[in-house]
Write a structure and sequence with these properties.
Order of helices and strands: EHE
Strand order of the largest sheet: 1-2
Low-confidence stretches: none
Radius of gyration: 10 Å
Shape: flat
Distance between the termini: 22 Å
Mean pLDDT: 96
Largest sheet: 2 strands, parallel
Structural class: alpha+beta
């Protein structure tokens, strides 16, 4: 079972890079584009 990480970032490019990097480390990534969604 992998750890879950929530990314809250309004910049799509940064959010994508973070997600891809964390997934390489076997993390389960949940994304949100702002604090309200997060």
């Amino acid at each position: 079972m992998s750890a879950k990480i929530l990314i809250v970032e309004d910049n799509d490019s940064i959010r994508t890079i973070l997600r891809m990097t964390l997934e390489l480390g076997q993390y389960q990534v949940i994304e949100a584009c702002d604090g309200q969604e997060g």
